[in-house]
Specification:
The protein has one domain: Porin. The chain contains 2 helices and 10 strands, in the order αβββββββαβββ. Strands 1, 2, 3, 4, 5, 6, 7, 8, 9 and 10 form a 10-stranded antiparallel sheet that branches. The longest helix is centred in the N-terminal third of the chain and has 11 residues. It is elongated and about 55 Å long. The chain starts with a helix and ends in a 23-residue tail after the last strand.
Amino acid sequence: MTLKITLLALFIIPFELMAQFEFGYTSGFDLYQRYKNPVDDLAYPGAGNAILSLNAGPKLWIGSPKISLSLEAHANLGLLTLSLKDYKGLGSVSFPMLAKINFNALSGMTKDFGAGWAIGGGIAYTRTELFYLSEKYKDLGVNRTFYPTYIAEINFGGGGYANIGYFYVRYGYHFDTKASLLNIGIMSDKVFSSQRRGGAQPEPMENSAVNFTMY
């Protein structure tokens, strides 16, 4: 899925706009998360959390102020993720890896404050019951391991001047194992830019069909 979205973005974003490159990091927290492990017929597969869930990781942007492609990978740690229906242990961690197409203020390239949105997808590896798996379920043979899901995400937010904030909804599913995830929360992107740090900017190429301006 990540490859398909990346290839689609390469067709959508005009080639001459893909010279601007930015890097930074993304961080935030989940307002709600819900994970469903592959069914093992030993224990209830679900677990959720609404507090103490943190996200952080690196992010790259390439494109223009109107539209960009971004790549990110971050860790999502839920300290109190648990199953109320069938308590087995605490905690979860998920590692989503996403490619997104970003518009306007979420492009990572804007100098003025405004609004924007983004859509993307990728893959996530998730594990629940990180801590204190009960002896009862150990004896039953319950063994939580990382499981993959193919994810889609949509963002709505705004920002500018290297600071972006947005609301996100992420859903993942695996058709073979029936495993799934749902994350709803708020993220903040910090963009490090050579232009905003005062770095030198090369002169644009002239007399060329494709005009590159590198930052």
